[in-house]
Automatic annotation (TrEMBL):
Keywords: Signal. This is Copper chaperone PCu(A)C. Pfam families: PCuAC (PF04314). It comes from Piscinibacter koreensis. Residues 1-45 form the signal peptide. The keyword Signal applies.
Length: 175
């Protein structure tokens, strides 16, 4: 009887070890899944801001400034805080308003991106002004544009946009 009890304890101990190992494996799997889900959520949050319909007008020889236009949307709301391009010494945000018969242009420090709304940057409106162009903008080519966006918590991220140079706005931009 004592042998039987010892054998039973031994079997129970082995079963307990296997069950414990399975439970630990299941726990690790659950933790890993949660971590991956968290990373996926972070990746989705990084895709909160989208830029579409980007384009720039060609310039002529000797012209030192140009304009870039695009649609930008933030699902949660953000602020466009900075623009840069290898094609120009500097890039500024500008707005244009009509004052009677006169169009007035002024530099904007930032551009609010309201949650879920598309903000249009277009000729004769808000646009990216490329200053001190390094070379003329030629139709059929493209330039890089780097946008820095800050979310409501002040976290910044950078978006890289390739801006095609064309004589007219893309169809999706001409609303």
């Amino acid at each position: 009887m004592q042998k039987l009890i010892c054998r039973f304890i031994s079997i129970t101990s082995t079963v307990d070890k296997r069950m414990k190992a399975r439970a630990q494996l299941k726990l690790r799997s659950t933790v890993l899944s949660a971590a991956l889900f968290g990373l996926t959520s972070l990746a989705l949050a990084a895709e909160d801001v989208t830029v579409t319909a980007a384009w720039a007008r060609p310039t002529v020889r000797g012209q030192s400034v140009g304009g870039a236009y695009f649609d930008i949307r933030s699902e949660r709301g953000a602020t466009l805080t900075d623009l840069r391009s290898d094609a120009a010494a500097s890039v500024q945000l500008h707005s244009m308003t009509r004052d009677g018969d006169i169009m007035r242009m002024r530099e904007l420090a930032t551009l609010p991106l309201p949650p879920g709304e598309v903000v249009h940057l277009a000729p004769s409106g808000t646009h990216a002004m490329l200053l001190d162009l390094r070379q003329p903008l030629r139709a059929g080519e493209s330039i890089p544009l780097e946008l820095t966006v800050a979310d409501a918590q002040g976290r910044r991220r950078t978006l890289q946009v390739i801006v095609p140079i064309r004589t007219a706005a893309p169809v999706e931009h001409s609303r």
